[in-house]
Each structure stands twice: as C-alpha cells, then as structure tokens.
Amino acid sequence: MEIQGLQKMTLLDYPGKVACTVFLGGCDLRCPFCHNGELVEGEAPAALNDGELTAFLKKRQGLLDGVCVTGGEPLLRPELEGLLSQIKSLGFPVKLDTNGSHPDRLRRLTEAGLVDYVAMDIKNSPERYGETAGRSGLDLAPFRESVSFLLSGAVDYEFRTTVVRELHDGDSFRAIGPWLAGARRYYLQSFVDRDTVLRAGLHPWDRESLEAFAGLVRPWMERVQLRGV
Ligand code: SF4
Questions:
Q1: CA 33 → CA 54, 112, 158, 192, distances in Å?
Q2: Is 139 helix (H, G, I), strand (E, B) or coil?
Q3: How do residues 129-181 score in pLDDT, each as one tens digit?
Q4: How much is the pTM?
Q5: In angstroms, what is the span from residue 219 Cα to ligand 1's centroid?
Q6: Measured between alpha carbons, how far is 227 from 162 in angstroms, rounded to an integer?
C-alpha cells in the first residue's frame, strides 16, 4: 500500500501519547481552509509503502505509544483495513482522523477492534456545512450518522472544528452545540494561514472570539477546549 507521508514523532496529534502520524492521500471534500492540497488531490507521491512502515514501527516499539492515521480521508482507501491490522498486530493503539463521510466504514473498522480513538471534523453548522467543506449541495446524512455513531460511545473520540473568520460565526456554534449534545470532547482549532491552503484570503478569528464561540458550545458538552492558539 502506498503511504503519502510519515511524521516520525508527534506529541500533539494523539492526546496523551507520543505517536507518529501516517498520511494517506485522497479526499472527497475540498475544504477551502485545507492545508493538504497535494494530498487531497491525490497528487502527492508515495513516501513509503506499508512494508517500510512496518519496519519503522518495529524499531519504535517501546518508544512510541500510538499511531495516528490521517489524510486526506483515510476511510476512502480500500487497503486501510489491512494497514490498521498490521499496525495493531505490532501492539500500537490507533487514532483515526476522519471527515465523517463514510459512517459504514468507520463502524466496521471500529467494531473489528482496529481503531482506539477517532477524531472527527465538524466542518460547521448544518446550514453552512457544504460551503465549508467546499461541496455545495453536500448530503449531510452520512456526517450525521458518523456523529450519532461516535456519540453512542462505541469508541473513544473527539470532535473538532477548524475555525475560519470567513466561514464561522456565533450562529455556527449555536447550531453545533445542540447537534453534538453530550459529546465527550470538542476542540476549536484556530485556522492558520499557509501557502498551501486551498483557497487564499482566509483569516483566523482572534482568541477572544474563539473563547466566546467555545462558551456557546460549552453547556452542551463534557469538555470544550481551544487547541493551537
Ligand atoms: S481539511 Fe480534511 S476533509 Fe477537508 S479537504 Fe482537507 S483533508 Fe479533506
């Protein structure tokens, strides 16, 4: 299996763990604020294959506490199940990042015991979801199903939103709160501009506004935090 990138160590991606991050190319959304243009368009060359990843992980047994699998959208890759089985057989807990577009696959991999922690993006309020995901007319049913599955508590999870001045305002969070009612963890991540962002001209909100948005969702969830600000 072709793997488009490997970050050999991260303290930020898997809460409470020293982990590495595996990047898989291809995505079914086109979020204007996405940093991973090459990965999303499927143009990123393979950085390594699954055999090389296994060799790397064998050397890191006892040094890393977990493996993050991210994209793009990892659930689009048919070989994902085999890759996760390989990682799990080496004894590493797996964190899977997903945009929630494939609840059936998310459920299957979780029920097979191949995923220990899921981080699902919540792009915006249902009203502005398609706009924020770069897909006008997007059918929200699969995303709602992924949210319901995670809220059921079948696997440990977090929801997170990358907050962009041009895409989010108070109404976004007034709608997200009740939608995710009862969620264990919700993170608001400030947008960071870079040369590789899909659409130029986007801006972050200031810290005070992010705190105010967090205040709007806090009554609905167990833990709400800002991340990366
Ligand atoms: S932000 Fe995530 S879901 Fe959106 S286009 Fe980028 S990789 Fe895909």
A1: 32, 33, 20, 9
A2: coil
A3: 999 999 999 999 999 999 999 999 999 999 999 999 999 999 999 999 999 99
A4: 0.97
A5: 28
A6: 9
